[in-house]
UniProtKB/TrEMBL annotation, chains A, B:
Similarity comment text for this entry: Belongs to the methylmalonyl-CoA epimerase family.
UniProtKB keywords: Isomerase, Metal-binding
Signal peptide: none
Record carries keyword Metal-binding: yes
Pfam families with a match to the protein in the record: Glyoxalase_4 (PF13669)
EC number: 5.1.99.1
Protein name according to UniProt: Methylmalonyl-CoA epimerase
UniProt gene name: mce
InterPro entries: Glyas_Bleomycin-R_OHBP_Dase, MeMalonyl-CoA_epimerase, MMCE/EMCE_epimerase, VOC_core
Principal EC category: isomerase
């Protein structure tokens, strides 16, 4: 499997609204669509466009959110994960599993509506890494 | 100033060689050129290509390196910074300074040979952010 397109950098924030305000003030950047909830993942998300990729702002939906702990440790927010595209999520998962790479939980639908999974940071140089099926190749 | 191209994601590592081995094994990815030292910044760096951006692997050159503390806290390595391109580094610096954004140190030459500066994570949602003059627009 080749290293695919960097779909987005995931940035945790205590407040998507305050983060959007900063992007607006500093860069005149508007969000790519309105923020929306992903209750299954316990997060509210919003994308901001750079010319070649996106920033995914992620805010915990509540104290049980997996991102809540991150914000407790990093009250200003911070870099949370990176996400690379793959042509076929099932093939990517099988390939990683065959190589002993630890995958976190089941394959599920991500913020872009295509299947995704996360790989354990311990197996990716300390970087929490998401793999998502490319939108143009989704079934 | 508009949000520019994401030139790279900076990933700190205790060993560039071991990180490269992982990219090679998992993705068949070769480095974009050999690792090289940036003694003025106290780091050894190496780039790996994704189709739309790069990963910058950063290894501390010694215990006094600014990245050494990061590796002490994150022995596996981890996400260190993101870097966006700007057309004119002096204009970007003046623009940020006028808005009260804290810039870390002087403008200096970065790993791509063009002028760069870093912005304080406190002023960028907890994300250490580098701005670099686009190579194609460098003087």
């Amino acid at each position: 499997m080749k290293l695919g397109r960097l779909n987005h950098v995931g940035v945790a924030t205590p407040s998507i609204e305050r983060s959007l305000e900063r992007y607006r003030t500093l860069f005149g950047a508007d969000p790519h669509g309105e923020p929306f909830d992903l209750p299954a993942q316990g997060v509210r998300v919003c994308f901001v466009d750079a010319p070649n990729t996106q920033i995914e702002l992620i805010q915990p939906l509540g104290p049980d959110s997996p991102v809540a702990k991150f914000i407790d440790k990093n009250p200003d927010g911070g870099q949370h994960h990176v996400c690379f595209e793959v042509p076929d999520i099932a093939a990517a998962r099988a390939d990683f599993e065959a190589q002993g790479v630890r995958i976190l939980g089941p394959t599920r639908v991500g913020a872009h509506g295509t299947p995704i999974f996360f790989v354990h940071p311990k197996d990716m140089g300390g970087v929490l890494t998401e793999f998502m099926e490319s939108p143009q190749q989704a079934h």
